[in-house]
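Q: C-alpha cells for this one, please.
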Amino acid sequence: QNIGFELSQAKSTMPTLSVALVGGGEVLSNIAFPDHSPLGKLARAAARDLGVAVTRCVLLSPSGKRMAHSVTPSQEGLEDGDVFSLLVVGGTRLASTTTAFAAVREDGSAITWGHPAYGGNSQEVSAELAGGVLQVVGTNAAFSAVTQGGSVVTWGYSTWGGNSDEVKSQLSSGVHKVVGKFGAFAAIKEDGSVVTWGDAGRGGNSDEVKHQLTGGNSDEV
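A: Here is the predicted structure, written as C-alpha cells:
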C-alpha cells in the first residue's frame, strides 16, 4: 500500500502537506507542517488515520530513497509541488541466523529466540528493541536492527557482527539499510557512504577500499 504526499508552500516556514491514497481518497488534507519538524510526526498522523503502526510506515522521496523519520522538510529541500510516498509495509517480519530468529512486530518492537549466543538472547539491547525498529537482518550468528532514527543495534556472536563497537559512532544515525552475509554486515548511509563490521576475512573490514565507500554509492549493498 502506498500513500502519496503532495506539498504546496503556504508559508516558507509552514508548508501545507496533503496525504492521499495512491488508489484514491485523502488520508490527511492541507496539514500545516513546520519546516523544521521531523517528518515522523506526519507519518504518525497518517498511521493513526490508517489504523496501522507508524513503524510500518516508510517515507520515500520522489526518487524512491527511504527518508528517516527524523529528517525535516527543510533538510530534504522539499519544494512546492513535490510528491513523495509513504510505503506501508507488512505486519510481522522475520530474520534469522543459523540457530536463532528475530521478529519485528507491528508495534515496532523486536523479539528474539533460539540459541542465546547466536542472536536468540537480545536482553542486553532489549530497551533499544522495545519500539521503533524498521529492519532486522541476520548473518549466520548475529543480528543488526535499523531504527526509525537511523541508528543500528547489534547483538549475537560478537566476532561475526554482533559487536559493532569499532564503528558505533558511524552507526549512531543516518543509516538507510543493512545487509548481512556470512560473518559480516554492511550498512549504507543516507549520504551514500558504506560502513562494515564483523569478521575481517568475510567482508567486515573494508579499510582497503574505504576511500571508495565515502559517498555516492547505490542503495544496493
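A few notes: The longest helix spans residues 40-50. The first strand starts at residue 2 and ends at 11.
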